[in-house]
Amino acid sequence: MNKIAIYVVSLANSNRRQLISEQFDKIGIKFSFIDAVNGKDIVENEVDAINASEFVKKRYKRVLGRNEIGCSLSHQLIYKQIAYDDIDYAFIFEDDVTLSHELVPIIRFFTHLQSNVYNENLYILGGQQGLSSQDMIVLDKKNTINISDSINFYKTISSENYIFRTCCYIISRNVALRLLTIHENSFYLADDWSLLYKEKSFEHIYLSDYIKHPVDLATSTIQQERHKKATLIEKIKKSKLRKIKIILRQLLLR
Fold it and tell me: What is the value of pTM for the model shown?
């Protein structure tokens, strides 16, 4: 049997802790909180140093917000915990997600895995709701990981540029160690899956849709920091050219 850990990253004083705890209790799953790094507590010099780095300026072409930085540092804490606890597979959640009972058989599946062929992938449990990039994701319906008759992970096809958020995902110890190594060389946003794919942190992205993320992001501090970019993407989303691109991606990549 594999050693499994379930982590929830959350600010130490967040009122969301009670809500997510009740959800886990309802479906009978034990988990551990990881205290998130509060962006407000990051010293000014560290924020300035990150934004001054040539990699960040070239990669993101904007100033990263404190909450984005805090989120990314929080997930690095989880990767360190995975390494320290010698975890085989870690389920990582943020505290604003909505869980489902499908999580139970998924955890059971990874607990009893005997093949190493699965430990080089990134598994996204959902959370793409409300993102303008969601329509651009292409799934290979013939290449699936079957958890049960009704629960599947689908391999994505050339979609790493369109998958975001770190609200619900599964990684192995191998992947966590690679993510830590990349961070030692350059600061990166935790949900920059496109970059991490190019850096060979994982081989493939498998996507499911069993965990939900709030669609109304008005209270999200990270979303507020990304607002200008999100507004531009929303305009592009409604364009005829984008609709044509979505159709072509679905036809050509499947």
Answer: 0.88
CATH number at residue 100: 3.90.550
Domain count, the chain: 1
CA distance 201 to 178: 5
User: Can you tell me the distance from the alpha carbon of 163 to that of 160, in angstroms, rounded to the nearest whole number?
Assistant: 6
DSSP characters over 113-156? ---GGGTTSEEEEE--TT-TTGGG--EEEEEEEESSSS-EEEEE
The one-letter amino acid at 224: Q
Nearest-angstrom CA–CA distance, 183 and 180: 5
Task: Please identify which residue in the block is written with the tokens 């599964």.
Answer: 170
pLDDT tens digit string along 154-175? 999 999 999 999 999 999 999 9
Range of the domain at 48: 4-253
pLDDT, tens digit (0-9, with 9 covering 90-100), for 171-201: 999 999 999 999 999 999 999 999 999 999 9
How far the first Cα of the chain sits from its last, in Å, is: 35
